[in-house]
Specification:
The protein is mainly alpha-helical. The chain contains 8 helices and no strands.
């Protein structure tokens, strides 16, 4: 059990990153319920071992715990190939009409489905970089891989995402002609 001042420090330093922790777990596990469970377990683990956190990037520290908890959960609960690898261009007009809002919702849905099709390691890097705004250095620390690996995985993930999204775009162009 943490001392009161350490508990307060955990709430001040670690808990602001709870949403980022859940977001990462949600994208890695593809299930809101599983992500809630794993995030809760990771937060408990982080709390229990917070005395060992001696400063630095609290978000990266917590996301690394969440990532590890997700992979542990997947190894126990799913037959997933964890070794397989993975430019969002959604433009929102200044004034949304019902038609543009529906089109934007459709684009978001397509992107979310495309992200779901990516292998877990690719989703992980895309989510950390594009949705959580982590730097390459932070992602390398979270995933425990060299920065070069982060950069190449991210490049391949973006290419794969474009490949997944491209066929639908080509079909839409043909229909418009």
């Amino acid at each position: 059990m943490l001392e009161p001042e350490e508990r307060e420090r955990f709430e001040r330093v670690g808990m602001p990153h709870q949403d980022a922790a859940f977001n990462l777990a949600r994208w890695l596990l593809r299930s809101r319920v599983d992500a809630e469970d794993v995030t809760q377990e990771a937060l408990i683990r982080a709390y229990r071992f917070f005395a060992g956190f001696h400063g630095g990037d609290a978000r990266a520290w917590l996301l690394q715990i969440v990532r590890n908890a997700c992979y542990t959960w997947m190894e126990k609960n799913r037959a997933v190939d964890l070794t397989t690898e993975f430019n969002e261009t959604i433009h929102q007009p200044g004034t949304a009409t019902p038609e543009t809002a529906a089109m934007a919702a459709n684009e978001r849905e397509r992107l979310m489905k495309a992200l779901e099709l990516l292998p877990v390691r690719s989703r992980e890097v895309i989510v950390l970089r594009e949705l959580e705004g982590c730097s390459y250095k932070e992602i390398a620390a979270i995933a425990a891989v060299p920065i070069g690996t982060v950069m190449s995985t991210l490049a391949r993930a973006r290419e794969r995402l474009l490949e997944i999204l491209r066929p639908a775009t080509a079909k839409e162009v043909r229909r418009e002609l």
